[in-house]
Amino acid sequence: MKNVLSAVVITSAMLLSGCQSAYYGAMEKVGYHKRDIMVDRVTAAKESQEEAQEQFSSALEEMQALLNHDGGDLEKAYNKAKDEYESSQEAADEVSSRIDKVEDVAEALFDEWQTEIGEISKASLRRNSETKLRETQRSYQQLVKTMRRAESKMPPILTAMKDNMLYLKHNLNAQAIGAIKGEFASLQTDISSLIKEMNKSIAESTKFIESIEGGK
Q1: Are 94 and 200 members of one domain?
Q2: 28 and 38 both lie in a single domain
Q3: Can you point out the beta strands (E) in 118-188?
């Protein structure tokens, strides 16, 4: 059974890789090269982080409104906070997906670039291309590092939000709300830290896009 499962995983990975190669090949035939796809995917990752910033801030606001609730429909306030938590989870998943796509095209782009350098016969041109490749790779590595660092800030926040939502689901009353107020300051600090890290990542994305487009 274990061998069968391993074979399925390997086959799936090969099919996925083949699909990606076919996709890049088809796009290149219509004049849309890996460099262009790279720029688009970094832009999409940047936008997903901007959206996640807004979403986590919105979730924090709704949590604060719930904790400051002083009458009226408590369940309605809870449902709004819960919806914002679920939207934050979706935003986090989107950020991770976008970063994965950036890494996928980067690997294909750099492999192609390295192969094509070997096809350049003139030494001076080959050296120049090798230098540009190394510069782009360094810039890319810094980009992914900042993206992943910002991404890593989200799971603990989502866990804390989930804990609070589940606790309140089972004990939706003023006493329960009072019990989690002490955790709110920590959540505020964590979300502020997340937003700062995402700002760094967004700035790094802009810098990378400018550098790679300048190489066209």
Answers
A1: yes
A2: no
A3: none
Pair 60, 27: CB distance under 8 Å? no
Identify the DSSP state of 72.
S
Residues 27 and 111 in one domain: no
pLDDT tens digits for range 41-88 = 999 999 999 999 999 999 999 999 988 887 678 899 999 999 999 999
Together in a domain, 140 and 178: yes
Q: Left (φ > 0), alpha (ψ -120 to 50) or beta: where does 122 sit? A: beta
> What pLDDT is attached to residue 184?
85
Which of 173-208 are b and which e, b meaning 16 or more Cβ less than 10 Å from the residue's Cβ? eeebbeebeebbeebeebbeebbebbeebbebbeeb
Whether residue 12 is found in the same domain as residue 63:
no
The tokens for 139 are 């810039």
Q: Do residues 66 and 17 both lie within one domain?
A: no
Domain extent at residue 47? 33-213
> What is the spatial distance between Cα 198 and Cα 9, in angstroms, rounded to a whole number?
33
Q: Are residues 28 and 39 in the same domain?
A: no
The 10s digit of each residue's pLDDT in 152-204 is 999 999 999 999 999 998 888 888 888 888 888 889 999 999 999 999 999 99
Q: What letter does residue 32 receive in the DSSP assignment?
A: -
Lookup: tokens for 4: 């069968």
pTM of the model as a whole = 0.85
